[in-house]
Amino acid sequence: MSELHKQILLLLSIPIYAILIPLELVLSHFNRWRFYSWKETLMNIYLNLVNAGLDLLLRGLALVVLIFFSKYSIITNWNPVAYWVLLFLSEDLLFWLEHYVDHNCRLFWAVHVTHHSSEEYNLTTGFRSSVFMPFYRYLYFIPLALIGFHPIDIIFMYALTQTYGILVHTQAVKKLPPWVEYIFVTPSHHRVHHASNVPYLDKNMGMVLIIWDKLFGTFVPELPDEKPVYGLTKPLEKPFHPVNIIFHEWRAIGEVLRKNIPPGDKLRYLFKAPGWSHDGSTQTAKEMQADWNKERGI
Q1: pLDDT tens digits, residue range 154-201?
Q2: Alpha-carbon gap, residue 288 to 293, rounded angstroms
């Protein structure tokens, strides 16, 4: 990444570490909001460090792959303004797609679940990384390289939008002006995404723009009579165990695959949505939401 790219990211990220997190922590303490606990905060830092280490190791591979495909790009001459606007829009859309797959395919949910496992919601939750995502995240950006976006710029834009994505992990900000709520992912929208309430499951997948969720039917507003409850639908055993927090879903998948069931069902356990079961003993988010709507006559 170029020195200019690094300086921009540094300029944007330092206030999060140096000002916003300490400010939210102080406000939480003095207002007795109880947004933070030491155990959850330390777990967020731990998961971020593990993810960052893997990301650093694999960044070279990601760059090599994107450079390879960029050799076959279909556009070589760009208007500079159009270049950056289209890169942002395209990357944000591809993030929505990646995020949707993470929530609707159990194999990828096993990676992403760590990000949702905290029962707290604060700015440090934004650093609670999906540890193994660096192994495959860059594959979603291959179409961008083929279109004609430079690999370095692709990686830079992702880091830039991730910085925005950290800022919406807060309960301190309630609702923003209506035009902002209409276009952008806001803290209110992302609180819905992290909630385990049935109507909120697998909703609001966007990183920066909420318009993708509105276009593809995955948007739900934060409801006044449905306060978000954070974490997973089923509490974890040993939520602060450094190995269990990363591998608990993989272990659960392994237990299912050892069952005496047809090979086709074993594949479905891997690639269907979390909660799918061959005997109907568990439910997916969509099935739970259908029952929830039926109970309320919706």
Answers
A1: 999 999 999 999 999 999 999 999 999 999 999 999 999 999 999 999
A2: 9
